[in-house]
Design goal:
six-stranded parallel beta sheet; elongated
């Protein structure tokens, strides 16, 4: 075995978090130095413990795993991020790669595969689950950042006028962005558009 791999583990489901931590600690070259139950805790743990790898889920309270990865990339943090998730969505994978994520594996993989992915990421490789690599380029994300932002906000039930106030935009501009997003996604209304975008990993 090589030198010890120091890991921060982020996962919002307590039983899954504990199981992952226990299984990883059985590995002679892996040490879980901290665990986190949401994205904000994950960022704080990385800053405090300076691990080699952040092993994180995507959908967590507060910041998602993808948002944490993007924040770490912006800050120039050298920690390498390995996503482990139940979501085999091409949109998520694209956003992960754009955020500098070093690996993306699925939770239903055997623990041996996860440990192998950790070791490869530690060695400087990029690791992507094979079934994801094949599907990754099936659907290009057609949304702009502003359209994505408005679709997220629209799911709160806010009116166009409320969205315009919240985002400091003209009401007509909000209506145009949402109409364009709905047209791109073939949706009849903004909630359907948001649901379609979320299913494809674009929100």
């Amino acid at each position: 075995m090589g030198e010890e791999i120091r890991v921060v583990l982020a996962e919002d489901q307590g039983m899954v978090l504990d199981a992952f931590a226990a299984l990883l600690d059985l590995q002679p070259d892996v040490s879980v130095v901290a665990t986190a139950g949401n994205g904000d805790e994950a960022l704080a743990a990385v800053e405090r413990h300076r691990p080699d790898i952040l092993l994180t889920d995507i959908e967590m309270p507060g910041r998602t795993g993808l948002e944490v990865a993007a924040e770490l990339q912006r800050a120039g943090d050298p920690v390498r991020v390995l996503i482990v998730t139940t979501f085999a969505r091409s949109g998520y994978l694209r956003r992960a790669m754009d955020s500098g994520v070093a690996g993306y594996v699925l939770k239903d993989a055997p623990i041996a595969e996860l440990v192998a992915a950790l070791r490869r990421v530690q060695a400087g490789e990029r690791v992507v689950a094979p079934e994801l690599a094949i599907a990754a380029w099936d659907h290009a994300d057609p949304l702009t950042e502003r359209e994505r932002e408005l679709l997220r906000e629209a799911t709160t039930g806010a009116s166009n006028a409320e969205l315009a106030r919240r985002l400091s935009l003209a009401e007509g501009t909000v209506r145009n962005y949402l109409s364009t997003a709905m047209a791109k996604l073939g949706a009849r209304n903004r909630i359907e558009a948001a649901n379609t975008a979320r299913e494809r990993g674009w929100l």
